[in-house]
Every structure is written in structure tokens, then in C-alpha cells.
Design a protein that fits this description.
The chain is 74% helix and 0% strand. The protein has helices at 3-27, 32-50, 58-81, 86-92, 96-108, 114-133, 140-163, 168-175, 180-190, 193-201, 209-236, 239-242, 249-261, 267-284, 303-307. It is globular and about 55 Å long. The protein starts with a helix and ends with a helix.
Length: 308
């Protein structure tokens, strides 16, 4: 995986880490299922009108929209609405990385090397350190909901790779057409028309400003920029090399929650974050043994080199 792609994957991790704080602010005003539908509706309307069809099979677009758009965010938003702190949510959702590797290995027959597997285990150990430190912060239900979101993200990762779009950003934008109707329908059933209407009618009040800013961040930076880069990386690299970078998201998530919301990370959080970074580096660097040149094939030393 080239250095450029590793840097881009790190940027996506930063954008997605801060995204959890943005979601936190939005959930203080909008019901979770409706917020998911609204998030993608804002993207879907201009996409249908102005963005060219990405040239993919419909089943992979639907699979990507179902996994990444509906399952991931419906469960994540529900988990955060029921008490999952942003920092901890950014950690638990990264279970998508091992989920992606397993699905890719079974479904796509992608080969996982021992070095990659070891790197993933190191990163998972780092997540375990942070989880142990934060075990008492959240109840069991929010954690289970967030894990279900991670599984949805993993399914979406593999579908986006199978789609193999000409325009990865086009796929990301057209994926946004899938979630709005199902999520708004679920919101009307489970959250109620009155609650939905109240949140919409008060959108332009000063109290709703943080929620609106959070929504705009999620749409522009979290979805268009972050997901567009991510799908591009999944297209030109094996899933098992890209997916581990998602484990950097909780580092950015805890840091942004600390700076913006005052969620101070503990020594265990910092130690776990360092282990996660180490595991991602091991899992994504390409390790090639240096070839040994036979003595009779080694070039003779030139006079100029000898003089130097």
C-alpha cells in the first residue's frame, strides 16, 4: 500500500473520529432514525439531479447502501441515543476492521498474511485496553447496538469493493439514495410523526444550531470527503490492507471528545491508542525480505566510488 494511500487513510480516520462529536450534537436535537434519513436525504436529492450514475451493478449499490448507510448508522445512532459516549462509540465501531477481513477472506477469498494478521491482533489488543478502561462507562445495550453497526459497515466495505466503480465518489453519492426512505419510514413508526415534526420545525432556532452544524459536518466531511476517499482506497487496495486503518478512528474520536466535550482520556486510553497505531502500521506496511545478490553477480566497484 503506497505512502500516499496510507496518509489518505489516516486523514479519513481523523475526519471520522471527529464525526462522532458531530453526531453527538445532532442527536441532541433530532431523533436517531430520522437523523440517519435526513443525513442521506440532503445528499440524495442533488445526487439524483446532478451526479452521473457510477456505472455499477445495482445489487452492489444496494448492498453498499444497506450495509454502510442503513445498518451502520441506524445501529450507531440508536446506540449513541441510548447512552453510548462519542469516544467509546468510535472505539466499538472499529470492530468493523476484523469483521471486514473475515468477510473478505470468506467471501472474496482474499489472502491474509501472518504479518497482517499479527498487526490486526496487536490493534485489537489496543482496542481491548481501551475497552477495559471504559468498560463501566456504557450499559450493555448501547455496546451491542454499536457492534451491530460495525458489522453493517464491514458488509458495506466488501460490497463497495465488489462494485468496482469507475467513479468511487459517484458510488458514495449514489449510495445515499438508498437509506432515506427506509430510515424515515422507520422513524415515523418507532419515533412518531410528532417528534419528527417538532425537530424539523425548530431546525432554524438558536438552540438547534450545534445540531445543524454537526449535520453539515457529517454530510460534507464525514460522508462526501471521508467516504469518497475510503471507497477509492478500497477499490485500488485489498480490503485487508485498508480496513485496519479504521482502528485509528477511536484515537481521533477520544481526542476530539476530550477537546470539545471534556471527555478526558485516561492513561489506559492513551496506552491503548498507541498500541492501536502500532498494530495498524504492522498490518498495512508491506514487508519484503531483501533479496540476496550472489557474489559472482555483484557489480565491480568503480574507481570513482573507491576513491570516495
Amino acid at each position: 500500500m503506497p505512502l500516499r494511500d496510507r496518509l489518505l487513510a489516516g486523514l479519513v480516520a481523523l475526519l471520522w473520529g471527529v464525526n462522532f462529536v458531530a453526531i453527538h450534537f445532532s442527536l441532541e436535537h433530532y431523533p436517531p432514525f430520522f437523523l440517519v434519513g435526513l443525513r442521506f436525504l440532503v445528499l440524495a436529492i442533488p445526487t439524483v439531479l446532478f451526479v452521473k450514475w457510477p456505472g455499477v451493478k445495482v445489487r452492489w449499490l444496494l448492498g453498499y447502501g444497506l450495509g454502510f448507510g442503513i445498518l451502520q448508522f441506524a445501529f450507531l445512532y440508536a446506540g449513541m441515543a441510548t447512552g453510548m459516549p462519542p469516544g467509546l462509540a468510535s472505539l466499538v465501531l472499529q470492530a468493523s476492521a476484523p469483521f471486514t477481513v473475515v468477510i473478505a477472506a470468506v467471501w472474496l477469498r482474499e489472502r491474509l498474511t501472518l504479518v497482517q494478521g499479527g498487526g490486526i491482533l496487536i490493534a485489537v489488543a489496543g482496542l481491548g485496553i481501551i475497552a477495559a478502561e471504559r468498560a463501566g462507562v456504557s450499559a450493555l445495550l448501547p455496546v451491542i447496538l454499536t457492534l451491530c453497526g460495525a458489522l453493517g459497515w464491514a458488509f458495506g466495505n466488501v460490497c463497495s469493493r465488489q462494485a468496482n466503480p469507475v467513479s468511487p465518489l459517484g458510488l458514495t453519492l449514489w449510495m445515499s439514495v438508498v437509506p432515506p426512505i427506509p430510515m424515515i419510514a422507520l422513524s415515523l413508526v418507532f419515533e412518531g410523526p410528532e417528534r419528527v415534526w417538532t425537530s424539523v420545525a425548530t431546525t432554524f432556532t438558536p438552540e438547534a444550531l450545534p445540531a445543524v452544524i454537526g449535520l453539515l459536518y457529517t454530510v460534507v466531511l464525514g460522508t462526501i470527503v471521508g467516504s469518497g476517499i475510503w471507497v477509492t482506497l478500497m477499490k485500488r487496495n485489498p480490503s485487508s490492507r485498508v480496513a485496519p486503518f479504521s482502528m485509528l478512528v477511536p484515537v481521533a474520536g477520544f481526542l476530539s471528545a476530550w477537546l470539545i466535550l471534556g471527555e478526558v482520556p485516561t492513561a489506559g486510553d492513551l496506552l491503548g491508542g498507541a498500541v492501536v497505531v502500532a498494530g495498524v502500521l504492522v498490518a498495512t506496511l508491506v514487508w519484503r525480505p531483501r533479496a540476496r545478490i550472489p557474489a559472482d553477480l555483484e557489480p565491480e566497484e568503480s574507481p570513482t566510488a573507491a576513491a570516495g
